[in-house]
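A reminder from the course coordinator: this example appears on the midterm review sheet, so study it carefully.

Given structure:
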C-alpha cells in the first residue's frame, strides 16, 4: 500500500512539474548574411534580457524575400537593402519598418595586393579573377548598379570587368571567402563584412562617383504570430543593437 502511495505521489509531482514548465518563447528573424556577426550577438543579449529566443535565418536577401512569400511565416525581416522591404510592402507583408544602418560596397583584394588593384579600372586588367554576388542578393544588385554608372564613362572597361568575373556568391560572406582563400584576386563586398578578415584581405575604396550605398532596414512582418515580442526585438535592435553594429564596423543611421 505504501509503495502504491509513493508511486501516486511521484506521478502527481511529475504531472505538476510538466504543467508548470513555461513554454520556451521564440521569434523568427530573416536576416541578410552580411549581418550575421552583429545579429548573433544582439540575439544573445535579447534572449538574456527578455527570455525570448531568436531563431535566425541567414541568407542572401533575394532568397529570404522568396522564402517569406513561399512560407508566409516569420516575425522580422532585415535584408541588405531597402529594395526588398519595399517589394514586400507593396505585397502587404510589412507591418512597420525603420532604417538601421548602411551597407557600403568596397573592393577586397588578397593581403598585400599582389595584383596592384587601386580602383574599379584595375579590375579590367587581363588575368584578374573577380568574385561578385549573384543578382538575387543585395551586394550583387549593388555591383550591377556600380557597373551601370561606371559603364557610362568607361563602356569598354566595364565589358572587360564583367568578362573577368569567375564566380558569383550566394551571400556576401561567400564572395569575401573566395578572395580570402585565394580563389579570386578581388571581390566586391560590404565594408563591414571585412571585420575579422583584416589579416587576409586589403580594402580598396570605390570612387564615390560610382559607388552605390545601400540603406539597411529592419521590419516587422504582418505574418508575425507574436507581435509583442517582435516589437520588443525591433526596438532592441534600433537602440541597444546600434552599439553592436558600430562595433562591427557598420555606419548606423541615427
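Designed residues:
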Amino acid at each position: 500500500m505504501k509503495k502504491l502511495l509513493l508511486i501516486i505521489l511521484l506521478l502527481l509531482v511529475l504531472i505538476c512539474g510538466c504543467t508548470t514548465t513555461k513554454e520556451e518563447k521564440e521569434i523568427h528573424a530573416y536576416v541578410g548574411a552580411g549581418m550575421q556577426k552583429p545579429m548573433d550577438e544582439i540575439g544573445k543579449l535579447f534572449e538574456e534580457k527578455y527570455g525570448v529566443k531568436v531563431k535566425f535565418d541567414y541568407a542572401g536577401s533575394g532568397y529570404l524575400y522568396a522564402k517569406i512569400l513561399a512560407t508566409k511565416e516569420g516575425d522580422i525581416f532585415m535584408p541588405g537593402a531597402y529594395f526588398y522591404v519595399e517589394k514586400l510592402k507593396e505585397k502587404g507583408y510589412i507591418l512597420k519598418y525603420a532604417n538601421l544602418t548602411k551597407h557600403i560596397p568596397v573592393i577586397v583584394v588578397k593581403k598585400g595586393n599582389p595584383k596592384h588593384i587601386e580602383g574599379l579600372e584595375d579590375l579590367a586588367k587581363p588575368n584578374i579573377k573577380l568574385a561578385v554576388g549573384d543578382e538575387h542578393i543585395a551586394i550583387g544588385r549593388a555591383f550591377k548598379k556600380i557597373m551601370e554608372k561606371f559603364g557610362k564613362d568607361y563602356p569598354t572597361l566595364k565589358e572587360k570587368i564583367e568578362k573577368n568575373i569567375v564566380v558569383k556568391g550566394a551571400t556576401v560572406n561567400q564572395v569575401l571567402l573566395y578572395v580570402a582563400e585565394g580563389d579570386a584576386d578581388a571581390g566586391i563586398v560590404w565594408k563591414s563584412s571585412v571585420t575579422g578578415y583584416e589579416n587576409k584581405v586589403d580594402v580598396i575604396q570605390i570612387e564615390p562617383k560610382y559607388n552605390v550605398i545601400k540603406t539597411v532596414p529592419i521590419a516587422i512582418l504582418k505574418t508575425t504570430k507574436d507581435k509583442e515580442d517582435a516589437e520588443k526585438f525591433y526596438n532592441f535592435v534600433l537602440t541597444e543593437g546600434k552599439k553592436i553594429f558600430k562595433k562591427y564596423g557598420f555606419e548606423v543611421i541615427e
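Confidence is low (pLDDT under 50) at residues 15-21. The chain has two domains: 26-102+214-252, 105-210.
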